[in-house]
Amino acid sequence: MTTNTILLILLSLGIAFAVSFYQYLYKVKSRSKVTLLLAFLRFFSVFALLLLLINPIISRKTVETVKTPLPIVIDNSASMADLKSDKQAMELFEKLIENSALNDKYDVQTYQFDEDFLPSDTIDFKGKQSNIDVVAKNLKNIYKNQTFPTILISDGNQTSGEDYVFGFNPNNKVYPLVVGDTTTYLDLRVSQLNVNKYAFHKNKYPVEVFLNYSGTKSINATFKITQGNSVLNEQTVAFSPSKKSATLNVLLPANNVGLQILKATVSSKEQEKNRYNNTKNFAVEVIDQKTEVALISDMSHPDLGAIKRSIETNAQRKVTILKPNQVSSLENYNILILYQPTMAFKSVFEKNSNAKINTWIITGNDTDFNFLNQNQTQFTFKMSSQKEDYLASFDSQFNLFALDNIGFEQFPPLENPFGAITANGNTNVLLSSSIRNISTNQPLLTFTETQGKRSAYLFGENIWKWRADYYLAKKDFIDFDIFLDKTIQYLASNNARKSLVVNHERFYNSGEGIEITAQYFNKNYELDEKARLTITVTNTNTKTKQAKNYDLLRTSNAFQVNLDGLVAGNYKFTVKELNSNSSYSSGFEVLDFDIEKQFVNPDWKKLNQLAKQTQGKAYLANQVETLIKQLSEDESYKAIQKTITKKSPLVDWIWLLVLLALSLAAEWFIRKYNGLL
User: How far apart are CA 117 and CA 132, in angstroms?
Assistant: First the structure.
């Protein structure tokens, strides 16, 4: 306390004594015990009040012994049970945490891990993934700026996360305690398989396969990729003690549309301890992205052949040239190209008013513009009978899709009647027109979108001359055909928004997180945060086909459900919005694959590398006593005594307030009892 505080306390003592003396002892004829007690109570009350007003700071010193933390982390993944090391690991874990030498020297703290890092409350060795890297990250966060050792009880087989060897702090020693049989057994394994989830119909898709071998002799293995009873690829792979891995690249045909379930298998005539890891199921969804284009014209023109050849350079496009009276139905087409529409196109426009197929309208000298004014609303045409040549000018600000200027300004002019073309809404102009290098401020090629329906307009015929001119300059049609393909690609995309949008994969591996997200939009296409979404999931492989219902929970910008724990099989599901009864139905397949069953031995090499990286040491299960001795005798970890000074204001001392209240109450009661009030 400061000198001023001490002086104030002394002054308070004097004031309290003076008040009590004056009230109870000054000029009092007889000083009874009651009078003396009342004087004391008044003295205490006044002094306590003044002391609280002064509010001196009280300092208290305590000595605390801080031990070095010793986290003991046990692997709780299913691979521990599969390698029959779960009981051994549990015995080692209990032996370490109960050891008196370690508890005397260290602050022993216990954890477990599988895909997550958790306190060691429920160890059951049923974790679906092993992520040792999560141990490194969490220990860094828990024990920031501290130096401590770590005991890691594990088989070292990691199935998710980043490489754990370099994840731990190199300044903090890690002592892996390796459990399981380290004897080398002959084993073939499909360790990894890389494939795109989607492939295009009638194309070939690549599959990259990594095979591993452990053993002491040379063998020839057979690798196969099968689909049902059909063998899609088969080859022989040689392994030896010096060649323990192989990488295979295979091209498979995408002949059938839909979800294709395939199996990669490696085998030999030798006996293996674990054959589960010889097989890996995978799936590819083959998509038929072929775009059916109807090129409708009531006349013969070189443009028709040029457009058809240019579009069909993409194998996923097919163009059918039709006359208007040959169009009986539009349901088989994704895009309509209406070449120089006239009254003969009336039935086509009427059919498309219901079908709402995206359309590309190309005009020219034979176009009936009065008919167009009556059958579309994007543009108003006031055209004369005079023909005009229009040159193209590329708009670099166009942003509907990426396209480079392929020299549009150098192309021959397109022919179209002279007149005024007025847009009735927002348009995106790719090419504007000019007459003899004088801008008309009118579009030549432009795109519009109205209520989800996309349209393109080319105001001029003889586009075949553009393709021919490009070939003369470049000796190929590549960039010009890409220009037309991107136009078709834009029109092929359906941008109509649905009220209920659900995102999910077509297949999942068992053990993976199965996450389905959904968004519900109101009539203004705004995300409805008050929507009530449920999902009904049915396993179609079971006889009862029992359905399970779940609620989708709100996240930041969507609704989400996690369907973890589903067994392998085919599933159908329906997501429903309860307020509007909007629904979405689809399905997915869970492939039979347990990544925790891929191992035969603990990964001694990796754990030993981790120990060396952190200046620790790896131990086998039968060396646990050596590990305990090493840690208990390690002089680099010592307990630290800290002197802690705690300062608190007197007003925080609740007992002083209690005593003050009791003193005042007692004084009042005694005065009342003795008739002094």
Answer: 9
The whole-model pTM stands at: 0.55
End-to-end CA separation in angstroms for the chain: 40
Calculate the alpha carbon distances from 465 to 4, 387, 409, 435 in Å. 102, 17, 13, 17
- Rounded Cα–Cα distance for residues 233 and 262 (Å): 11
Q: So what's the pLDDT on residue 612?
A: 94
Q: What is the pLDDT of residue 415?
A: 96
Per-residue model confidence (pLDDT) at position 40? 86
Bridge pairing between strands 358-363 and 582-591: unpaired
- Evaluate whether 443 touches 459 at the Cβ level (below 8 Å): yes
Nearest in space to 649 (alpha carbons), one of 58, 39, 25: 58
Would you state the structure tokens that stand for residue 603, as one six-digit string?
């990964």
Residue type, 304: L
Alpha-carbon span 119 to 199, nearest angstrom: 44
Quote the CA–CA distance of 190 and 147 in Å, as a whole number. 40
- pLDDT band per the 50, 70, 90 thresholds, residue 264: very high
Could you tell me which residues come within 8 angstroms of residue 526 by beta carbon, excluding any fewer than 6 positions away?
none
Residue 77, phi then psi, degrees to nearest 5: -85, 165
The tokens for 538 are: 């049915």
Spatial distance between the Cα atoms of 130 and 127, rounded to a whole number of angstroms: 7
- Contact (Cβ atoms closer than 8 angstroms) between residue 510 and residue 566: yes
pLDDT in the model for residue 302: 95
Distance CA 582, CA 584 (A): 7
Where helices occur in 360-456 by DSSP H, the ranges are 369-375
For residues 370 and 661, give the distance between their C-alpha atoms in angstroms, rounded to a whole number.
100
